[in-house]
Amino acid sequence: MAVLCSGIKGLKEKWLAYTLDGETPIPQRSIVSFVDILGYSAKVRDAEEKGETSKFLYEYRQALFAASDSFVNDASCYAFNFTDSVVVGWPIAEEDDSEVPLCASCWYLALYQLTMSQFDYFVRGGVAVGEAYFDEYVQSGKAFLDAYETEERQAIYPRIVLAEDAVAEVKKSCSYYIEEACPLDQLFAVDADGSIFINYLYSVFGVFSGDSDRCREDIEGYITNHREAIERNLVATVSKSYVYRKYQWAARYHDFFCEEISGWLKKDLTISMDYGKERFAPPRRLLDVFPDWIV
Hints:
The protein has about 300 residues and is an alpha+beta fold. The protein has helices at about 10-15, 40-50, 55-65, 70, 100-120, 140-155, 165-175, 185, 205, 215-235, 240-260, 285-290, and strands at about 1-5, 30-35, 80, 85-90, 125-135, 140, 160, 190, 195-200, 285. The strands form two sheets. Strands 1, 2, 3, 4, 5, 6 and 7 form a seven-stranded mixed sheet that branches. A three-stranded antiparallel sheet has the order 9-8-10.
């Protein structure tokens, strides 16, 4: 497996969190995500048929490096890329509650998902909390398996879904806040099937903060790029119903987010084409669905 954060020096020192004496493997309670890039195989084949493999690889690497910036800058994070998948782990220190690392890791994943969308890549994945082990050669443990199975069986659409144990941690974390001050209500949303997923478009307000016209233009630019990427994929996959449905979901999620911030936007940035919007119930904010999670 190739290390995603290949620019980091001294990687071997990082594994000390998962060892007893620098050598003996010791699993740790961790937050683990398994993320898969949609349409990667099709893009590889298309590039090879057109004789543009080098161009594809260059652009794909640029997307990965840009999207992985938050992982690279977090010394406590362990990240790996192999083919079209990314695995990221964050060990939870014994003295720490899981709220802070869970929120931080999901924020990083939101930034990853947002940035990849700007390069026309959409991802799905799972996030789990539990025992795991990471080193340069082995990534294992129940949390790793739970994250993988959540991505494989539950995510389905371009969304990063919380596994059952991660949902329990979010519920516990919500109890620390009053409703008006709970940041988790913006970081997570609830889909029509009951899955809790990362509301990744919200992270654009972390990339650009402030009320200036320039800031608003930058945010609207990101959202516009997101819309155009979805519309391109809707057109490209219209004859492939299984894949098309995934981009229908992405379109409905995009419109949900635009509707949530419609009072802030100065123009309509919802999807401009007919994609069967009525077939998908919109996601809902976390605390609209679970108001009793706030004590």
